[in-house]
Amino acid sequence: MSRGETYDRVRSILSSLRGTYGHCPVRQTTISVPTTTYDRLRGLAERSVVDVGVRVNNARGESLVVRNEGGWTDPCGHVEDGESIEAGACRVFHETADFTCDIEGLLGITILCLTDASDAARAPIYRLGALFDGGRTEGTGCEECQWRPVKSGPFVGAY
């Protein structure tokens, strides 16, 4: 997989999201990752280059967050091959938080350039992360869910 493959796919998705949702904050960053992580993400990039999160707030302005190995975050995950970004966001939200949601807008986009920390000659992998504004509709909630004050900006983040 060449640099251009994932880069071009990310640029196309970014253009589509801007066409649907208009302007939103975009941040770009480069991260060097261990070879095992790079290889896993390279395999994932063959199916999808999009990660999604959904932020749902309650009347007190707190966000529904879930615990994962990195701490508390917005419910997030990967879009599957052939799945729309919005459908993937709703599926991920349901799978991680045990609620259904509606997509009400796009809060922010992160473009990641991932490089192999051990081999600079390997082509970078580009991924797009989209954080959606969601409205919770129904569900029981998972054991690993909590309402917490928003601490990160318009990007998927730790709480």
TrEMBL record:
Task: Give any Pfam family that matches.
Answer: NUDIX
Q: Which residues form the Nudix hydrolase domain?
A: 50-103
Query: What's the superkingdom here?
Result: Archaea
Query: What protein name is recorded for this chain?
Result: NUDIX domain-containing protein
Q: Which organism is it from?
A: Halomarina salina
